[in-house]
Write a structure and sequence with these properties.
A two-stranded antiparallel ribbon has the order 1-2. It has one domain: MetI-like (MetI-like fold), CATH 1.10.3720.10. A hairpin with a 3-residue loop joins strand 1 (227-228) and strand 2 (232-233). It is 76% helix and 1% strand. The protein has helices at residues 2-28, 38-61, 68-93, 96-106, 113-126, 133-157, 161-169, 174-185, 187-203, 206-211, 219-224, 235-245, 247-255, 257-265, and strands at 227-228, 232-233. The relative contact order is 0.13. Residues 31-36, 91-96 and 267-271 have low confidence and may be disordered. The longest helix has 27 residues, at 2-28. The chain is an all-alpha fold and 271 residues long. Helix 1 packs across helix 9, helix 6 (133-157) runs antiparallel to helix 9 (187-203) and helix 9 (187-203) packs across helix 14. The chain is globular, with a radius of gyration of 22 Å.
């Protein structure tokens, strides 16, 4: 129970902090130019290298490619293919840079987790993140990041941009306008997103099964261990543990219930 709570809460906080800031930036981005600044293009390059390099490294370890130049060439080719596909999608949808960026973030969920777990396991093993709390927290934050961005972006879009501008005119900084003006208005949406992400992290089985051994087993992984060849299905312990596993999400929902109705209906009810 303790390990599951630490991992679920840590992954939820990581995804909420990073995803909320990213969603606010996407929602408030209003440059007239059709291109991103140079530092965004550099960030895209670094992101693609970090994504493609462990995948090609896994292919090398499996014997599908050989030598370092094969890894480097596949990474470079993959980057240019990604650029061509991104440009093609941009010409199709015509949503501008912000729409393309939001769609690119959603692409992180296009592949099922099992399709990317082999390179993730290799990379986590090389960094000694397997069977650790921070290793699970990091992967849960990455997996749930697109959910947070898309959910929070819809809430930020409902807040008039004039409120930010008025706060800045009155002497507040950009961060001050965000924390003192905008964030209190979307606290209902933030609570709804937090509950949704917490349930996703709390109930995950596949990622925890592949990245834990014995030190940090979560409740879904431990439930799977209650099936043995000698005793078969241990229905009593499974039922008891299932009831215990339902307590934290229920308690968390009760704690934030006064924000949930406003968060679920934000944008549909006009005052």
């Amino acid at each position: 129970m303790r390990s599951s709570l630490i991992v679920a809460i840590g992954g939820t906080l990581l995804a909420l902090v990073v995803g909320t800031l990213a969603a606010y930036g996407i929602s408030r981005y209003h440059r007239s130019s059709g291109d991103f600044p140079w530092y965004m293009a550099l960030g895209r390059l670094i992101l693609m290298v970090l994504i493609l390099l462990p995948i090609t490294l896994a292919w090398s370890l499996l014997g599908l490619i050989s030598h370092w130049y094969g890894i480097l060439s596949l990474t470079i080719v993959g980057f240019f293919v990604d650029g061509l596909v991104g440009r093609f999608l941009g010409l199709i949808y015509r949503k501008g840079p912000v729409g393309n960026l939001a769609f690119s973030i959603l692409q992180l969920r296009m592949f099922p987790p099992i399709a990317i777990m082999i390179p993730v396991m290799i990379m986590w093993s090389s960094f000694r993140l397997v069977d650790t709390s921070y290793g699970l927290i990091l992967i849960y934050g990455i997996v749930t990041f697109p959910f947070v961005v898309w959910l929070m972006k819809s809430f930020f879009d409902e807040v008039p941009r004039e409120l930010d501008e008025a706060a800045i005119v009155d002497g507040s900084s950009t961060w001050g306008a965000f924390f003192k003006v905008v964030l209190p208005l979307v606290k209902g949406g933030l609570a709804s997103t937090a509950l949704f992400v917490f349930i996703l992290n709390w109930s995950d089985f596949l990622v925890a099964l592949l990245l834990t051994n014995r030190d940090w087993p979560t409740i879904p992984v431990y439930l799977n261990k209650l099936v043995t060849a000698d005793t078969g299905q241990q229905y009593g312990p499974k039922a008891a543990l299932g009831v215990i596993a339902a307590i934290p999400p229920v308690v968390f929902g009760i704690m934030i219930q006064r924000y949930l109705v406003r968060g679920l209906t934000f944008g549909a009810i006009k005052k």
